[in-house]
Each structure stands twice: as C-alpha cells, then as structure tokens.
C-alpha cells in the first residue's frame, strides 16, 4: 500500500471514487445528489489540483487507486477562537479495501499536511446514518461538536 499525493494522471481514478462516494450518500438520503447530477466531475476534481489550500492523498494498491482523502485549510468559523482550521472535505475507500487501515493511513498523511499548514484543529461532516464512517472518525480521535438537523416542509 502506497499513500501519495494526487497528480493530474490520477484524474480518472479519483473521479471514479468521488462518483461512488456521491452515489453512496444518495443511497443514504435521496436529497443528496447522485453523481450524474453534477455533470463535469473531471472539471470539479481538476480544480482541487489548483488550490494551494487543498491537498488530496491517494491510497494505491497493485497499481490502482483504491481510496482518497481531500483535506483543506480554511478560515475558522466565527464561533472559533482559532484563525484557521483543517477540514476533511471527503474521503472514500473502495468497499473491498475497507477495514484494513487504509483510511487511517490516508488521514495520517492529511494530519501531517495539516500540521505543516499550521492548522490547530480539524473538522469534518459525516452523515449520521453512515455508522462505519462515524466509528472510523471516532477511532481517529474526532468527537461530536454540533448536530445539524433537517425537517422537510
């Protein structure tokens, strides 16, 4: 298993993972858009390469990309006394590669990058129905700080 940064040559593989992640969330809740509703994923994902405040790490196994994590640094929310925070925007590991420590290795690479960027804390959002992801993030030291709720009208 190799953990490395996203490069232009990886675009097709990363787009495939992002589409799977998007469709998984749509399966949890139909108000999440399915992958096909986004249109040009290639253009969206390409922009990640251009943003100096974003870094994408890939897990590669047997010559193929099997997972990724997209990390960023942004201004802290108004309620925070910190100047900037790290954010895990999204992460996905192919189903057959899960529970092998890959997500933890991806996060470790992101954590090193967050430290270089001088972020003092990291936040992320996870769907409350995604029990596997919740368990993973708790194992990696995250705890709940807010609860976002929704009600249809």
Briefly say what this structure is.
With 153 residues, the chain is α+β, with helices and mostly antiparallel strands.
Would you write up a description of this structure?
The protein has 153 residues and is an alpha+beta fold. 34% of the residues lie in helices and 24% in strands. It has four helices and five strands, in the order βααβββαβα. The protein has a five-stranded mixed sheet, sandwiched between helices. Helix 1 (11-28) packs across helix 2. 22% of the residues are buried. The model has no long low-confidence stretch (mean pLDDT 94).
Question: Helical stretch count?
Answer: 4
The coarse overall form would be globular
Which range does the strand content fall in? 15-25%
Low-confidence stretches: none
The whole-angstrom Rg is: 16 Å
Mean pLDDT: 94
Structural class: alpha+beta
Q: Ends: how far apart? A: 47 Å
- Oligomeric description of these chains: single chain
Task: State the helicity in percent bands.
Answer: 25-40%
What topology, given as strand order, has the largest sheet? Answer: 1-2-3-4-5
Tell me about the largest β-sheet: 5 strands, mixed
Strand and helix order: EHHEEEHEH
Overall strand count: 5
Please give the structural blueprint.
Blueprint: E1 2-5, H1 11-28, H2 41-50, E2 54-61, E3 64-75, E4 84-93, H3 102-116, E5 122-124, H4 131-139
């Amino acid at each position: 298993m190799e953990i490395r940064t996203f490069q232009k040559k990886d675009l097709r593989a990363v787009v495939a993972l992002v589409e799977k992640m998007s469709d998984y969330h749509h399966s949890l809740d139909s108000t999440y858009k399915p992958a096909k509703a986004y249109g040009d994923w290639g253009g969206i994902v390409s922009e990640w390469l251009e943003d100096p405040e974003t870094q994408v790490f890939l897990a590669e196994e047997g010559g193929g990309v099997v997972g990724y994590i997209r990390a960023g640094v942004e201004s802290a929310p108004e309620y925070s006394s910190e100047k900037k925070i790290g954010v895990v925007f999204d992460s996905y590991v192919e189903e057959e590669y899960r529970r092998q420590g890959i997500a933890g290795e991806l996060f470790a690479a992101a954590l090193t990058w967050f430290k270089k960027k001088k972020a003092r804390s990291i936040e992320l959002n996870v769907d409350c129905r995604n029990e596997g992801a919740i368990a993973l993030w708790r194992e990696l030291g995250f705890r709940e700080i807010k609860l976002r709720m929704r009600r249809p009208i």
